[in-house]
Amino acid sequence: MVAIIMTDEKIAERITLWGIVQGVGFRPFVAKLAIRQGISGEVLNTGGLVEITLTGTSLQISEFLDALTREKPKPAEIIHIERKRVPYREFEGFNIAGSHGGDKDAAMIPADLSICKSCAREMDDPANERYRHPFISCMECGPRYTIIDKMPYDRESTSMVDFEMCSFCSGQYANIADRRYHAQTISCHECGPQLLYRASGKESTVCEGAAGGTEELLSLAVKFLNEGKVIAVKGAGGYNFICDPFQDCAVAALRKLKARDTKPFAVMFQSAWQVSEYCEMSETEKNLLESSPKPILLLERKQASQENCPPEFRRSRFIGAFLPSMGLHRLLLKSCGRPLIVTSANVSGLPMVKDDDKMFELALMSKGLVAGTFYNKRKIRVAVDDSVVRVIDGKPQMIRRSKGYAPVPLFVRAFGQAPDKSAELLACGGQLKSAFALSKGVLSYVSQYFGDLDNLENMRVYEENVERMKSFFGISPEAVVCDMHPLYETTKYADEYAKKHGIKLIRVQHHHAHVASVMAEHNLTGPMIGVSFDGTGYGTDGAVWGGEFLICEGSSFRRDAHLKYVEMVGGDALVRDAWKPAVSYALAQGKGELAASAEGEVMVDIAEIIAASNITEHDNWNIVKEAIEKKVNTVKSSSMGRLFDAVSSLLGICQENSYEGECAILLEDAAARALKNPGSSEKDRLALKFHKQVADMIFKRCIRIRERDGIGKVALTGGVFQNRVLMEMALKLLRDGGFEVYYNISVSPNDGGIALGQNYVGMCLLAV
Questions:
Q1: Using the 8-state DSSP alphabet, how is residue 112 labeled?
Q2: Cα 338 to Cα 519: distance, rounded to the nearest angstrom
Q3: What are the backbone dihedrals phi and psi of residue 414, each rounded to the nearest 5 degrees, phi first?
Q4: Which of 76, 180, 482, 714 has a beta carbon 3.0–4.6 Å from 428's, enabling a disulfide?
């Protein structure tokens, strides 16, 4: 910010603000503040920025800016303010001027905002005009990213353009003293989106917009839920399937509908108090649960609630708990009086449904599994699933970055990047839990979660969103960054994109990208130790990596050590069938191959676990043994994820991953039981011992690197570090040993964070 000389002379200044300053009530706030302080002028949206022209003394303007930064709306973020003297002109009061396209260089679109406390109070007040209005919103809440067509953020630039405001709403919209002054999503029972219903492929005539009709449909929805049926409900970012977790028939129907056999479902609760009946919850977790993004929060289930829990809650020691983010969900929860399963409306592996016609078709094809579809006619421009978060080490950590967070940018400065350097990049991410990142200068826009890109439909949605975000933020990539794996769909896409646009293609090794994502988040340049543990990643030697110790600095890395390679039967089934790596490790142990003898090898001693197992009696023992001996369809793997699978199988905990990470999750649960109950089973004791051995191995290798190279900073990343037991053990050992330890916070340690790491490496290379 430039220095301003204070005088009593009346002047005019143009103030330009960068940040999340559109769609969060910022212009109405500015107008009210200016009027309160007796300053005249105007405010307008320009591209992704806000411009304010003020007339007054330098002192008045400075005091105005101090108040602005101190009192700004809660969802707003200001990252830079620029003041510029302009020719003086008189204004009649203070006005909100019409928006114009302007400069898109630093556009920031707010994420969707969940229902605020003021709107919640109005919903519950029988005397209020919006009593029990399912789509209530104001300047501080409501959909944003999921309904916007273009910048700047105005009603005519969103799907709300289809709804004409009634006289009541337009009066509030134009009243500067009202909370809904210039609230673009404003609606009531008489205008805006209304609750509608469709059954058996035919639209019901029960409700055509009247408040009474809304109550009829809410009663019908509750009736279906009480009868143990599944309903489809249109949310802000896409459709949800909803059912009663206390009724086994409802859960069974939902599992059949989604083709999801065992993976636990997220559960929506009415309040934090209701969550506390079933889950342990710290103050940090409570605050996160109630925060505006309303993420799914992974909370440890109370053992005391075991008898009162439905079987669905007992599938894991964690419950994915979250609160309603919009009025409609809030009404359903309040009417039912109990928690509800609320999950994305799709068949597992396919994109979340956002369009009405597709939902009607899916409901019709469900052959009665979906009892009815409750919807509205506000179009969803982009599907955004719920975010998933946990608290680790007393801090929130992203597991799935999506609704409520995307596409708010992260601020990343590359190693060696000049302050005025404005590189534009597309980082394509990985194959699983995919997300991409677009960046310009120091802003990295990490997309929402898209799931696994192993089907054409998911890939189509991914590609559409790349183009959509490029347009919003005015980004024309000068380079594209991708993984090294030649068969990843994102790698193929990046290669084609680079050729089509005639730009540079940068390939980044998978585990290096994991570590780089931590460096990007914490503004680290290195050198540092990167401990990158996951299920699989394409190595520079063509082998399957996954248990890596890397030394990273800027855009470069070197592999210091890795989990000892073990020959395993390859193919996609290796990820699914935990008994295959179990047999592979047992065979390697029998040959004396698990001793980490070479300089760059590390290993965890699982001889006791193998000895306690009956793996040699497995039906396929001889088949796998022969395949490995003859090296038929085998791969060399240093994967820590596969080692966790092997141990889970050897201990008889889980033999098959029916969903990603199931074997490792259940192994962690066994270790957690042993931590809480030293007298638990031998199986649990060995599971805990294994976790301690992995943490100790990490610590010892980091000590060795520090003694040799003098490096005292460590990054822990990769999907394996979603294991809370292992993470907390490793953190304690390393910190007690004098290391500075960093990990992912704003992006996931799993492959959802890969794009940010690729982005960082690409930025470093272009900065040179």
A1: P
A2: 43
A3: -75, 155
A4: 482
Burial of 178 (0-12, 13-18, 19+ CB in 10 A): middle
Q: Closest by alpha carbon to 540, among 511, 567, 506?
A: 511
E-assigned strand segments in 359-394 = 370-375, 388-392
Q: Coil, helix or strand for 716?
A: strand
Q: Which amino acid is at 222?
A: V
Residue 646: CB atoms within 10 A of its CB come to 29
Q: Which two tokens stand for residue 438?
A: 């677009």
Residues 582 and 596: their CA atoms lie apart, in Å, by 18
- Give mean pLDDT, residues 207-217: 66
SS3 190: coil
Return mean pLDDT, the chain: 91
Dist CA 560 CA 553 (whole Å): 13
What distances in angstroms separate CA 374 from CA 67, 134, 201, one per listed residue? 44, 11, 12
How much is the average pLDDT of 223-248?
97
- Residue 405 backbone class (left: φ over 0; alpha: ψ -120 to 50; beta: rest): alpha
Q: How many CB atoms lie under 10 A from the CB of residue 146?
A: 23
Secondary structure letter of residue 162 according to DSSP: G
Q: What is the DSSP letter of 429?
A: -
Q: With CA atoms as reference, report the closest residue to 273 among 294, 289, 291, 297.
A: 289
Contact indicator for 98, 55 with CB cutoff of 8 Å: no
What does residue 430 show for φ and ψ, rounded to 5 degrees? -110, -165
Q: In the numeric block, which tokens belong to residue 696?
A: 């100790």
List pLDDT tens digits, range 311-350.
888 888 999 999 999 999 999 999 999 999 999 999 888 9
Instruction: Go through the chain and tell me how many residues it has.
Output: 768
**Whether 152 contacts 22, CB under 8 Å:** yes
Secondary structure element (H or E) that encloses residue 451, with its range: none
Ramachandran angles phi, psi of 17, nearest 5°: -120, 130
CB-based contact 681:711 (threshold 8 Å): no
Give the separation between CA 119 and CA 102, rounded to whole angstroms. Answer: 33
Are 578 and 656 in contact, with CB atoms under 8 Å apart?
yes
Collapsing DSSP to helix, strand or coil, 243 comes out as strand
Cis peptide bond N-terminal to 407, omega within 30 = yes
Q: At what angle do helices 621-630 and 579-590 cross, to 10 degrees?
A: 60
- 3-state DSSP assignment of residue 242: strand
**Which tokens is 284 given?**
């940090």
List pLDDT tens digits, range 629-667. Answer: 998 889 999 999 999 999 999 999 999 999 999 999 999
Q: Which two tokens stand for residue 323?
A: 């609160």
Handedness of CA 756, 760, 765, 768 (dihedral sign): positive
Through-space distance between the first and last CA atoms of the chain, rounded to whole angstroms = 28
Number of H helices, E strands in the chain: 22, 30
262 half-sphere exposure, CB direction, 13 A CA radius: 13
All residues at 6 or more sequence positions from 117 whose CB lies less than 8 Å from its CB, including other chains: none
pLDDT of residue 90: 86
E strands along 405-527, which residues?
A: 410-411, 424-427, 437-440, 443-446, 479-483, 504-508
What is the chain's Cα-based Rg? 28
Alpha carbon distance 210, 54 (integer Å):
45
Question: Do the bridges between strand 504-508 and strand 239-243 make them parallel or antiparallel, or are there none, so unpaired?
Answer: unpaired
Region 537-565: what's the mean pLDDT?
96
Residue 495: CB partners within 8 Å, gap ≥ 6? 482, 505
Q: Are 273 and 347 in contact (CB under 8 A)?
A: no
pLDDT at 7 over 60: no
Q: Are the beta carbons of 321 and 289 closer than 8 angstroms?
A: yes
The Cα–Cα gap between 195 and 222 comes to 14
**Which tokens sit at 660?**
């990603």
Rounded to 5 degrees, what are φ and ψ at 357?
Answer: -60, -40
